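To the wet lab folks,

You asked to see what we're planning to order before we commit. Fair enough. Below is the target structure as tokens, and below that is the sequence we designed to fit it. If anything looks off to you, flag it before the synthesis order goes out.
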């Protein structure tokens, strides 16, 4: 069980273009992860306008999409991440409150 705590969390944020909104979401995600999982996470921001083939390869049908690659199983949350903590609950990274 102690081994579980040392595993990395790998997140991929799929966006379409580097807009102010997508940059703000990436920064907010970084901040929340740093608060909850310091030193135990990696975030990759993937612009599908630059790498369109990944949309098909990774089955991304809408943006923004946040994918938890590790720990398994893979989980996805689609949509606005104005509440990043809610998205992390959807990815099973934070406990549900109440």
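Sequence we intend to order:
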């Amino acid at each position: 069980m102690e081994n579980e705590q040392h595993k990395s969390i790998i997140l991929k944020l799929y966006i379409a273009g580097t807009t102010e909104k997508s940059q703000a979401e990436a920064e907010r995600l970084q901040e929340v992860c740093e608060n909850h999982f310091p030193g135990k996470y990696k975030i990759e921001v993937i612009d599908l306008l630059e790498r369109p083939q990944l949309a098909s390869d990774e089955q991304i049908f809408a943006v923004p999409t946040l994918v938890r690659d590790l720990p398994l199983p893979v989980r996805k949350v689609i949509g606005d991440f104005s509440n990043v903590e809610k998205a992390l609950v959807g990815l099973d990274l934070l406990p549900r409150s109440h």
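Structural context that might help your review: Confidence is low (pLDDT under 50) at residues 1-6. Residues 2-90 form a domain with the Glutaredoxin fold (CATH 3.40.30.10).

Thanks,
Computational group
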